[in-house]
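Morning!

As promised:
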Amino acid sequence: MKPFTYERASDAKAAVQAAVETPGARFIAGGTNLLDLMKLEIEQPQHLIDVGRLPMATIEDTADGGLRIGAMASNTKVAADARVRSRYRVLSQAIVSGASGQLRNKASTGGNLLQRTRCPYFYDTSKPCNKRQPGAGCAALEGHIRESAILGASRACIAVHPSDMAVALVALDASVETLTPSGETRSFPLMELHRLPGETPHLETHLIPGELITAVVLPPLPEGGQQYRKARDRASYATAHASVAVVGGRIALGGLAHKPWRAADAEAALASGATAEEAMGVELKDATLRDENAFKVPLATRLVAATLREAAQ
Amino acid sequence: MSSVQDWEAPNPVKDNRSGLIGKGVDRYEGPLKVTGAAPYAYEVTPPSPPAYGVMVGAEIATGRITGVDTVEAEAAPGVLAVWTHRNVPAQPPRGTKAHPRSTSGSRPALESDRVTYFGQPVAFVVADTLENATAAAKLVRLTYTAADPDVDFPHRLDAAGMPPGEQDTEIGDFEAGFAASDVKLDETWTTPIQNHCQMEPCASVAWWEGGKCIAHTSVQMVKPAQHGLAETLGIGRDDVHLLTRYIGGGFGGKGQTYDDLTLAALAARALGRPVKVAFTRQQMMHGTIHRPATIQRVRLGAGADGRLNAMSLMTWTHCQRDGAFTEHASNFARNLYAAPNRLTGHRLVKLDLPHAGAMRAPGEASGTLSLECAMDELAEKLGLDPIELRIRNEPEVDPENGRPFSMRQLVRCMKEGAQLFGWDRRLPTPGQVRDGRWLVGLGMAAAIRGNFLLPAKCSFSVDADGVITVRQGMTDIGTGTYTVLAQIAAETLGVPLGKVVVEIGDSELPPAPGSGGQFGAATAGSAALAAGMNLRQAIAELAVADPGSPLHGGDPNAVTFQDGVVALENRSETLAELVRRAAPAGLTVEGEIRPAQDAQKWSQQTYGAHFCEVGVDPVSGEVRVRRMLGVFAAGRILNAKTARSQLTGGMIWGVASALHEGNAPDLRYGSLLGQDLGNYLVTVQADVGELDAIMLDEVDDKANPMGIKGVGELGNSGAGAAVANAIYNACGVRVRDYPITPDKLLPGLIAKGW
């Protein structure tokens, strides 16, 4: 681990200010991902700004009947919240299917969104990785791994985003609130938070440097059933081969892309009467497949079909 | 030399007057472990503040180090030393034995510029803190000339040869017998590389007192570790005091020492202060041994009556280019089922992978994953219940060497297990049972693992407080050694458990072979019993010779020991009173066990039967174990709790082998893909539903004076096959390439129309 300096932010504005002014600064909240990466020197922040104790952990009803989840609310707290469980159960299901109880106790809502890929080549610093070192190349491209992306991947990166929570939030049409370096509050759809890798896989979100996620806002209770389903090798502490969040007619997919994937084409096909299989055929028509990850096509298709049925029950 | 007949005499363990033998006694060191008072090697506090060493692993699999730049590392904060092959202190060449009776030769670290596997320690940094050493280790710049690694095991079978000194075992004429069989099966299974993933990574702390090296490390066998370190350091064997008091799992991976120990000792000598060195979790994956992958071809030929006419299990496996390990996955098949025509053997490929080595139930753990599934498939072809097929092929004597079995209760394990598990509810046709979204199936498999007894010594002392101290150069790798030694001592000397102290894990104590091959309890325990019997004799003689004792003048052979009291008919006194008066400095005696000269006349195994109920999600191909039961026959059980933990732990490993564990090499780099516990999956709590292990009443009087056998590896043998067979019963899909993950199961499920 590289030496670094540390400060505990007094409020959100001061945190953002410090982030802008201090070279090599990173926010830290639960630290469940960042600290591991720092120990491996994959992340080498020179300065940590601890936002974990800022008073942004409350979950409040919004005037329009939605919920505003503070960015520092722990994953455990969100998953256990009675309003989340009754009105947004897909979110609760998604959160508890990720990580482990200990990690969820520490992990924050904002941090969960910003966690980094679990691609094994990202973690093995003896191998080239464009995320770690832009322009170095991608060892995963010719590596025989099942964990790679089938949607939106590039020649520079085939990593997938590991979050379960984010998949449910995309299906819920959630939005993100942030504090920008200029001190303004900005709000935008969570679906627009993450980037596809393109030629710059080291850039994972559209946040501007120093911008701090302060909350995630859920719109009012959506119509229709909700269901989250995740397929993985073992029953706990394993990332998804594929996952599906269904909220009414909306579908989001996990484990398939560099970001939580809103299956808009499939939604449109379903709305015009296609079967789930037909709809997923449309959604995955441009999927880029390798021998090891080709199973994700039938897997995701079958999961969507089954999850739509379950959500409708 | 003793004979097994000598073991038939009664002894306190067999008599079990206080009922301690077999009881589920809590772990002797349990309170220390749960309160953090049982330090692992790295946590031992040395006599002065230690420095911290960090190893640097090679980033190529095969080649040479051509450039070394340690300028930046040496200038980093707190750095005390930076070593590579260019400046490491001189060590004797690998394998050197200055003392001809050393149980291990020298194991030099950083021995040359040659790299033979990815992750091989090639540089070493010592600093004042772990953090400084870790940071500086990243600053060591090495350049290499690398060759393309040769690691593609399935495509290198052309290079496979007979393992050194071995030959195939053929009885009858296998090919003719197979060709003439009514019903045939010829299938191939593959198993992947597995890593041990002990809770405690390999670690050491060493310091010097004059010319003597004191080293705490995490190792299963004390003497080879002590001797190997002495040979490496070029000092006398008695000049190494090696300790391994508490060990966080071994599983065979700590049957040897690694460079952490060598480098800690060398650096402590060079720096004149204690040095701690540990492998990181990531370094463990390459820097220590693994269970190698196998390709296993099983051919079974049977008559329509279900009797096997021909049986063959051939295994291809790999080891490191400089190594000599063979995964003997075919061996167990020589003892398991009757068949007149038999062929078993192994082929070995040397590759540029890290070192292969022993992992829990080496041989059986991999081999049962093929043969025990093949028996399931054959049963289906024959229209027989899998248990009935096994019963029809139950041998009367060992099918290869013709020796009688010392004990063989495999059929009873299967029958009792079937009853307890509800095997009669299994429908022979797959895919018939549904519970919600899950397809439910039942499977079973047999378990077998050899039983061994090795030479060992032990000492017993009694002090003026009547406390019995057991001392032995034995180890407890989480298995329960401390506890069973305490039970044997308490029962033998007739004292409560609270009056027994156990000291193990120390090279200066009477030697025992350590933990491995499930020989630990029988070997160490038998030596303990012998020492205990000698102490009884010494105490009895002390009492009858002491005019102050109420036992004075009596027959020492008639003295009894119970409840801390020594008695002769109606005359008695407490053990403490006797010792305090007649031998205030206490008494110490030794005892030893040796294998009986005629023990080889019997085929000696432990047996079991696994039963498993799985759910298969036909949509996703996910598999979850709902229920699992093992019934085992493994001699007298010393401790119902620790033995059960051993067996269920082995069973869970079987679940892992069937469903989760495996590490694939990257063919370009020669490294393994799984480098941490997030990417290398072991079975977790949520993967296993109900789990139980039952131990049949058994005493194997050919095994040792106590009639006990090992259980540490038996639970692993066959468990994965029971899971795989249950998967087939649930959904009708056979996957013969372990682990059975959703990506492998899904095509079959789709083809079946699920």
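Residues 363-452+600-752 of chain B form a domain with the Aldehyde Oxidoreductase; domain 4 fold (CATH 3.30.365.10).

Hope this helps with the figure draft.
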